[in-house]
Amino acid sequence: xxxxxxxxxxxxxxxxxxxxxxxxxxxxxxxxxxxxxxxxxxxxxxxxxxxxxxxxxxxxxxxxxxxxxxxxxxxxxxxxxxxxxxxxxxxxxxxxxxxxxxxxxxxxxxxxxxxxxxxxxxxxxxxxxxxxxxxxxxxxxxxxxxxxxxxxxxxxxxxxxxxxxxxxxxxxxxxxxxxxxxxxxxxxxxxxxxxxxxxxxxxxxxxxxxxxxxxxxxxxxxxxxxxxxx
Length: 230
Prior knowledge:
- The strands form two sheets. This protein has a seven-stranded mixed sheet with strand order 3-2-1-4-8-9-7, sandwiched between helices. Strands 5-6 form a two-stranded antiparallel sheet.
- It has helices spanning 13-16, 23-38, 50-61, 68-89, 126-137, 170-176, 191-200, 212-219; strands at 6-11, 42-47, 114-117, 141-146, 151-152, 164-165, 167-168, 203-208, 227-229.
- The protein is built from eight helices and nine strands.
- The protein has one domain: 3-Layer(aba) Sandwich (Carbamate kinase).
- The longest helix has 22 residues, at 68-89.
């Protein structure tokens, strides 16, 4: 990636609000983005919903019988709340309006250093929006910040024998995740987005948001702690 290339970065809600809002992470993210934009990089940051989304979904489902669209819309609004938090934090250097429709990226001046995006419509997670935005700006790589160091061949929280994966192809990756999207699904990259990324030949780097120095290594095509899905 060149210094002038637009960097598309998906920030998981599990980093923004793991339980309470993680101000330490937000401070580190702000410092990182300010440093990188000063070096000429431009960032499009897509906010995820994480635990905030799941709490609202679980609460509503405990009271009423809901459709998948109902649950998805709550997740979408959680991403927008997290997105507004990010846009406010970056107010000095960010485009003044958070985008939701991926097509809106085409109307934003290339001089904008930071653009914040969030969920748009039901049927997928913000992972797909990251892929769609990357396609619209001509980016062939997406950075997916999560709360784990790698993608694993099983859930490391429940299986201590789960093996880390440093590089994997899209066909192999898709065998590890569910085939269908569902509201509240927890997956390293959602199945709808994975299928689209494979079709469009977009590479995804899964990196722990607590290790932002690894993002710099990835941007310089150096070995990094994380998983490359290609």
